[in-house]
């Protein structure tokens, strides 16, 4: 074999890293669902899941088993190839962005540098946007291939919504990119030492976060699956594990968006670090996870608080408010950056 | 790297054939997305990360989404073959062969097979930004005006007459 021992070793290290990150992400997705049910329940003065495990902590396991053993049913008139492909597209694309997300500062242990990141792409931010911009296909194709009116309407709505809000999502982070002078997520975080971007780019953050809620089809922008008018939207005809894939994709996207918000505006893994070397290595990761958790909570809080928009309000808000504000923010930021550099 | 290139090239060509030969518009659109994404990976192999990502964002993520949206709105299921002219049926394939031969010949003349590896150029966002906004600022702006004109034209054409 042409491969040397060290190549095999580094390959194994990469595979191990990918496995760890993937398992962590899927666990986070499962428990995001649990957290949502719990928090929304408490907002509504209920208990939420309580029977399976202490405080319902094993509920995700029970739900997962249930959905695995459910009949996977496909209506007779669907376009079978695309009906199968759509949930895979949605799920696979929702897992990819985590590969460029840095969780902590690099640590050097006896000469080996360990970075808490699968790969550091110098256009990492754009990579995340590229992958999420493809995510719309899962939803659109699911709606189309179901060959049924409500899924089609849901698919159309969500395609239009995701295209509209993707622009604002991008504009919201342009200010951050200009301040950092880089598209690498690691560098963007390292530029925030001392002062987080939220203080420099509050408008950019608001634009980003509101667009992100719309991009992930969440309340108050969850029209693609508005159950009172579209039954279930694009996934009406899905059942069993294919439905679970859409469900997991939605939560994985929420985790990604929260990670990105943390990295771009809230200093990523930055925070007080102290104690013995091991604690020093792990504390940044803990700070990062804590901030992401904060965003997940905010997401659920919004879900428990706000009613759903009407469709024309949604489009009007995206194009006539969020987009101009985002553009204005880019303009002002670029003027300030130019003024500071002269 | 070379093996990867050949795999991607094969995928791109097969998918491109799929675009033309498919009868169902959505399949064609999906195949076109595969073509665009495999081209993006070729760019990645050449070290042009920015271009690769932008290729995906703009073509696969924006333009093709609009295509798919239009196909969905029209709810086009399957195309029925049109009655093509007899001239096209008999002359189409030979003319295509001649044209392909010409292109291959021209490429082979200009870039002999033994061409050295492409010179390492900076494909980063900074370099491309400088090219777009310094060296080629006029063509860049003219293109954007062209697109604006096209958008306005589409709106005017699509507007219902009172």
Poorly predicted segments of chain A:
none
Low-confidence runs of at least 5 consecutive residues of chain B: none
Oligomerization category of the chains in this entry: heterodimer
What integer is the average pLDDT of chain B? 84
What integer is the average pLDDT of chain A? Answer: 85
Distance between the termini of chain B: 60 Å
Beta-sheet strand percentage of chain B?
under 5%
Number of strands of chain B: 0
Indicate the overall shape of chain A: globular
Task: Give the overall shape of chain B.
Answer: globular
Q: Taking Cα atoms only, what radius of gyration of chain B do you get, to the nearest Å?
A: 20 Å
As laid out across the biggest beta sheet of chain A, the strand order is 1-2
Largest interface: A-B, 27 and 22 residues
Count, helices of chain B: 6
How many discrete structural domains of chain A? 1
Number of helices of chain A: 13
Note down, in words, how this protein is organized.
The complex is a heterodimer of chains A (342) and B (162). Chain A has 342 residues and is mainly α. Chain A has one domain. Chain A is built from 13 helices and two strands; from the N terminus they run αααββαααααααααα. In chain A, strands 1-2 form a two-stranded antiparallel sheet. Chain B has 162 residues and is mainly α. Chain B is 77% helix and 0% strand. Chain B has six helices and no strands. In chain B, helix 1 runs antiparallel to helix 2 and helix 2 runs antiparallel to helix 3.
In short:
The complex is a heterodimer of chains A (342) and B (162). Chain A is an all-alpha fold and 342 residues long.
Task: List the keywords.
heterodimer, A: 342 residues, mainly alpha, two-stranded antiparallel ribbon, 13 helices, B: 162 residues, 77% helix
Q: What is the element layout, followed by pairings?
A:
The complex is a heterodimer of chains A (342) and B (162).
Chain A: H1 5-43, H2 59-69, H3 80-95, E1 107-109, E2 112-114, H4 124-134, H5 136-145, H6 149-180, H7 185-190, H8 197-200, H9 202-215, H10 227-230, H11 240-265, H12 277-305, H13 311-341
Antiparallel strand pairs in A: 1-2
Helix pairs in contact in A: 1-11, 1-12, 3-5, 3-11, 5-6, 6-9, 6-13, 9-11, 9-13, 11-12
Chain B: H1 2-21, H2 25-45, H3 49-74, H4 86-110, H5 125-135, H6 137-158
Helix pairs in contact in B: 1-2, 2-3
């Amino acid at each position: 074999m042409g491969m040397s021992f060290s190549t095999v070793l580094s390959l194994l290290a990469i595979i191990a890293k990918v496995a760890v990150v993937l398992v962590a992400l899927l666990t986070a997705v499962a428990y995001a669902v649990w957290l949502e049910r719990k928090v929304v329940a408490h907002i509504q003065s209920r208990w939420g899941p309580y029977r399976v495990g202490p405080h319902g902590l094993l509920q995700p396991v029970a739900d997962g088993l249930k959905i695995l053993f459910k009949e996977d049913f496909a209506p007779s008139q669907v376009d079978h190839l695309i009906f199968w492909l759509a949930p895979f597209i949605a799920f696979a694309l929702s897992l990819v962005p985590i590969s460029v997300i840095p969780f902590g500062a690099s640590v050097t242990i006896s000469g080996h540098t360990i970075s808490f990141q699968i790969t550091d792409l110098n256009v990492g931010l754009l990579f995340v946007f590229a992958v999420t911009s493809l995510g719309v296909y899962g939803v659109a194709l699911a709606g189309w291939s179901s060959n049924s009116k409500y899924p089609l309407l849901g698919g159309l709505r969500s395609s239009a919504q995701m295209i509209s809000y993707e622009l604002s999502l991008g504009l919201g982070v342009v200010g951050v990119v200009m301040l950092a002078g880089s598209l690498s997520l690691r560098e963007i975080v390292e530029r925030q030492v001392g002062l987080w971007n939220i203080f420099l780019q509050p408008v950019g953050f608001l634009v980003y976060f509101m667009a992100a809620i719309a991009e992930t089809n969440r309340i108050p922008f969850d029209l693609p699956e508005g159950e009172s008018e579209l039954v279930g939207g694009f996934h009406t005809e899905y059942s069993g594990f294919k439905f679970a894939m859409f469900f997991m994709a939605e939560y994985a996207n929420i985790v990604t968006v929260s990670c990105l918000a943390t990295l771009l505006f809230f200093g990523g893994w930055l925070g007080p670090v102290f104690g013995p070397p091991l604690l020093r290595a792990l504390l940044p990761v803990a700070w990062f996870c804590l901030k992401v958790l904060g965003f997940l909570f905010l997401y659920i809080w919004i879900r428990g608080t706000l009613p759903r928009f009407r469709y024309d309000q949604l489009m009007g808000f995206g194009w006539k408010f969020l987009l101009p504000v985002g553009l204005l923010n880019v303009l002002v930021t670029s003027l300030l950056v130019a003024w500071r550099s002269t | 790297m070379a093996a990867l290139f050949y795999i991607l090239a094969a995928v791109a060509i097969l998918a491109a054939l799929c675009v033309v030969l498919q009868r169902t518009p959505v399949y064609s659109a999906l195949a076109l997305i595969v073509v665009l994404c495999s081209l993006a990976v070729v760019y990645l192999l050449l070290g042009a990360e920015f271009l690769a990502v932008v290729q995906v964002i703009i073509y696969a993520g924006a333009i093709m989404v609009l295509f798919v949206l239009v196909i969905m709105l029209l709810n086009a299921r399957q195309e029925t073959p049109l009655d093509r002219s007899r001239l096209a049926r008999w002359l189409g394939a030979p003319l295509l062969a001649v044209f392909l031969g010409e292109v291959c010949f021209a490429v082979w003349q200009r870039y002999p097979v033994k061409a050295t590896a492409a010179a390492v150029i900076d494909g980063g966002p900074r370099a491309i930004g400088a090219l777009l906004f310094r060296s080629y600022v006029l063509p860049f702006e003219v293109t954007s005006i062209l697109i604006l004109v096209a958008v306005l034209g589409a709106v005017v054409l699509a507007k219902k007459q009172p």
